[in-house]
Write a structure and sequence with these properties.
The structure is a homodimer of 238-residue chains. Chain A is of the alpha+beta class and 238 residues long. In chain A, 30% of the residues lie in helices and 27% in strands. Chain A has seven helices and ten strands. In chain A, the strands form two sheets. In chain A, strands 1, 2, 3, 4, 5, 6 and 7 form a seven-stranded mixed sheet that branches. Chain A has a three-stranded antiparallel sheet with strand order 8-10-9. The two termini of chain A are 35 Å apart. The N terminus of chain A is likely disordered. Chains A and B meet through helix 1, strand 5 and helix 5 of A and helix 1, strand 5 and helix 5 of B. The structure holds a DNA duplex (27 and 27 nucleotides).
DNA sequence: TCAAAAGTGTTTGAATTACACCCATGT
DNA sequence: ACATGGGTGTAATTCAAACACTTTTGA
């Protein structure tokens, strides 16, 4: 069997990404998880919303491809990026056989509000941020993929410190708690949350305080880069 | 860009599997994790040991491909099979670009000792079972892959009941504990282990006892198929 | 009857939860 | 001064580890 024969038998390879950001929800106004989707302009599933992604360039690492597609659709760089799963069931594409290697990413709300990129992206009618708990019908098996990514994010939130990836450089503990509450979808005891974070050693006080609040000024914190913010698997950071 | 152009740019796709079984170690005689490796008969890495695997057939699901390669090299069916990771870094293959979707599998020691298949496989000089903690130099990045699979197995052992996949249909609690101890590499308190397993509801007593031991006959158990033996991720069983 | 593994009971300490309470600031 | 979120203290509870102890068999 020649190489070209083998290549033609091999299914096409694509890389997609589930991108999470925290934004105020349209309905409740509270912070909620949002993900960007792109409208498909060709068959199959023309007109449906789908995860950003595309083919893998010949000389490109998988994570780089995910990052590249992410940047071109959202104009944002991920603060966290991790492989989710490879989806390759036969029936998933309708047309040609496609194996999708899917990543999930977090982008910082601070970055998102940074400059005019938000407006720029919003102006593209084929890219739109949706509330993760209120999605339209998606193309392919992308709904399954998003559900799995959501599960992974929420699970990981409870044993790692990825919440930091959602927030800016300096922050209050209340702000960090807000992130946890928005992602997990439940309220957390401020006292216990404080102890949990402080005992984990993942943050260090900057010594400064946030003023201008109507009440007692909260202490500002920064990440402790000395400790690993993700999990201790032997593959390390992507 | 035509489809054929795109396909030719797309890297080749392969599926490999890290297969774990428990066998008595050559050195200590105690149960230890072993994995089967195949000797490469072509460049690159000719002569080196590598994970069983190969190309993905055009009409084949990813997990089916993993299962197929597993059966052809070891003559065993997996009692557990799960996707591990997709490895696609540029430099990993030396020759053409290959993206490997790697699975990890468990096979039951009972199955392995079942019939003449063991001898059959042992007779093939290009397939050999190695102690997972005493591996030869491997081809490609397969050493990294095995280390990651080992980490996943040991991590999962602590919060799920995959240990059952290593053992036969009926078993004693001491036998199940032996599996845990061999995989985790440390001794466990028999009393606490018993309570842990019983409270998890994952086993049910058969009512029978194992006789012929030099001491008090232990009660025999069976899996409780009513409870999920793996983790509750929304993708379900592979 | 004795050795050894099966199986039970109890104590300890760590970690999580719930919640009462004080502190400090803008209004 | 006071309302409100920042921040601290502490009791109740749950959970896992450690280990003493009793039971049952073959030799």
């Amino acid at each position: 069997m020649s190489d070209s024969t083998l290549a033609s038998m091999s299914p096409a390879l694509a890389v997609s990404t589930v991108v999470f950001s925290l934004m105020p929800s349209d309905s409740t106004g509270r912070m909620a998880l949002h993900i960007p989707l792109v409208r498909r302009i060709r068959e199959p599933y023309r007109g449906r919303w789908a995860l950003p992604g595309g083919p893998l360039a010949a000389d490109e690492d998988l994570a780089d491809a995910a990052r590249r597609h992410l940047v071109t659709t959202t104009a944002l760089s991920p603060t966290y990026l991790e492989q989710l799963y490879a989806f390759g069931a036969r029936g998933r594409s309708l047309a040609e056989r496609v194996v999708s290697i899917v990543y999930w990413a977090l982008v910082s709300r601070a970055n998102a509000a940074d400059d005019a990129t938000t407006a720029l992206v919003q102006s593209d009618p084929n890219v739109c941020w949706f509330d993760a708990d209120d999605l339209p019908e998606l193309a392919f098996d992308h709904r399954t993929i998003v559900d799995y990514a959501l599960w992974r994010l929420r699970t990981k939130m409870e044993y790692s410190r990825i919440a930091h990836a959602f927030i800016g450089d300096t922050f209050t503990l209340a702000g960090l708690r807000e992130v946890h509450e928005a992602v997990l979808g439940r309220e957390l005891d401020p006292a216990n949350f404080r102890r949990m974070v402080e005992s984990s050693d993942s943050v260090v006080p900057t010594g400064e305080f946030l003023t201008g609040t109507p009440h007692r000024p909260p202490r500002l914190y920064r990440y402790n880069h000395a400790v690993d913010l993700v999990d201790p698997n032997p593959l390390g950071r992507t």
